Amino acid sequence: MEGCNLTDLTYFKTGRTGTAHLCRAPGSTPWEQARFGDVLARREKTGKILAEFLRFYEDQYGVALFNSMRHEIEGTGAPQTQLLWRKVPLDERIVFSGNLFQYQEDNKKWRNRFGLVPHNYGLVLYENRAAYERQVPPRAIINSAGYKILTSLDQYLELVGNSLPGTTSKSGTAPILKCPTQFPLILWHPSARHYYFCMMTEAEQDKWQAVLQDCIRHCNNGIPEDSKVEGPAFTDAIRMYRQSKELYGTWEMLCGNEVQILTNLVMEELGPELKAELAPRLKGKPQERQRQWIQISDAVYRMVYEQAKARFEAVLSKLQLARPAMEAVIRTDMDQIITSKEHLASKIRGFILPKAEVCVRNHVQPYIPSILEALMVPTSQGFTEVRDVFFKEVTDMNLNVINEGGIDKLGEYMEKLSQLAYHPLKMQSCYEKMEPLRLDGLQQRFDVSSTSVFKQRAQIHMREQMDNAVYTFETLLHQELGKGPSKEELCKSIQRILERVLKKYDYDSSTVRKRFFREALLQITIPFLLKKLAPTCKSELPRFQELIFEDFARFILVENTYEEVVLQTVMKDILQAVKEAAVQRKHNLYRDSMVMHNSDPNLHLLAEGAPIDWGEEYSGSGEDSGSPSIPEAATLSEKRRRAKQVVSVVQDEEAGLPFEAGPEPPSPASPDSVTELRGLLARDLQAESPLPAGPLPNGAPAQESPQLESLQSVAAPEASSPLASPLQQIPPGKAVDLEPPKPSDQETGEQVSNPGGRPPIHTTTEDSAGVQTEF
Fold first, then answer.
1. How far is 546 from 149, CA to CA, in rounded Å?
2. Which end of the chain has fewer CB within 10 Å, C or N?
3. Which whole number is the average pLDDT over 631-635?
């Protein structure tokens, strides 16, 4: 830092190594108001917060390891599901691709970009479609964890004005941003940089909104659920740290992976201090001060992220090295540890039980039915919609099999059906059912900052159940095809398998919903109880520490045991409320006593085989299938490389240009009710008459999306190739690896690509991406 003036520290920039450092640049910048001492103070403050949190994390790691090993030994797992689940996820698929306009903050211009969303849900932006096909490095990779989608400038300007008091623009003054169309999409984050996009039509805006919302939903769920030690240890440490600051209740910024969440945690404390100190020193018009504050906040966010990443990875590495020794102690002394913990729990229970029961009876129990009903209505409607969408898609496919040549096109239809759960537009009607979720009058009482955490969790369950139903259907149908059925037999088998899968779905969805209701009720009520009991109970907890043997102190914590006792006091009321809802047959919940034991003993054995490749097995070839033939000399690896070049799970089905209103192609009216669909299926199976116009949507051929028109008044014209399938653009026989890059594990947005040649693009290594910066 030698030679740096206090006034010319500008912003944090990413080098090719991916590390953040301070750069000096002359001229007017947001950092002209910041002093070098301010930056050092922020780093020191960040270091103190991280050190305090990481002490909680180290404590929770031993507890989580013990709980995980105890769970494995005792085998108290959930009942076996009826539906199968994919052991090999649908990787190497492109969820969505298309053009959109992005606002460039460096030159204040709107530029046409080709956007692509791969299976890992990181939005990748290329200069244009031709750049993508030529494998030019992307302009940006955006990880959307923690972001919100705004569809109007008024919403955005209100949030920006609230984030920096005293900067609300007066009427008649130029806002911080002007959108050239009426259809903007803005990605807003409370601390990191913002992203501005716009479309030419409302239909395009709706489509991109659904896709980006799916990206946010997926990226927010960044901690792997199969992490049985690191994941629970981290989330428990977050909760314990915030409770030590007297922050109870749900936290809206528990979004992304561990480093992102830890960065949000630091910014929650650092942000208000930074705002109070720097906001009065920002100069210029209100919109200029808003712009400066956004840039300053983003720069500090990047600094905190790099610091948090280094510290967290160092501690995690240390704990993983110590893990084998800890496991050896747990295996040797498991019985003694359990006995010691139960003794501690009995002493704590005797102390707090009278107070906790009174608190539950007076402040929690009367509200459990109301909270449960508020959760049940939208959630059950969403799962019912999942069932209806699945039924409709399979029935449409069956009708297409009848009218389009039977098994010859089955591979094409099943390839599309297999990706149904990851189709943002077809799943949108299911996700929308959760939007009305409200806890009116209860949010303030129980300190629930937002219901978004419950909405997104339910939506993730919906997607999982849809994929499980689809995969089970795929597996059973694949087994049936081994018998060589005729077209008539195949259609009857599809209908029979569909009804079989729906019964399994009804059982599993009931189980998933009941578990979701129990978890949500605990997540709402437990923090409230802990806050109520803290003044009289928390100060007395240290005296129980002497009951823990020193050798077991890493695996038993007084605070965790105390919370388990509190949980037990309210758990019986929650279980009873959910049980009564099932007994009353509310929202199609099954009773707990209704268990499907080994109803399909051989089904789970089918899932042990290799993943089904419908395109390879049933796509047909040459003239018989009507699809482009593959040269016999092509190797299997070449075929797989070509398979990576799927244009999109979401197909544009409009006949006109994306930015022009045009009539939709004629299509047969789709019956709405289950009775109509079954009747139509039976009638077509007997008559085998062709449909009046083209295949139904599930069998519709992929249409090419035309090139977007440029905005001449606000954006420089750029060459862009037509949005045709890459399979049609690349000469036959030329193997091109278009494996999409994995988004950076940062919330801050864009990533600089190495301009000197194309580096290898990773899809599985989180740490391969650096800090994103502006272009």
1. 51
2. N
3. 42
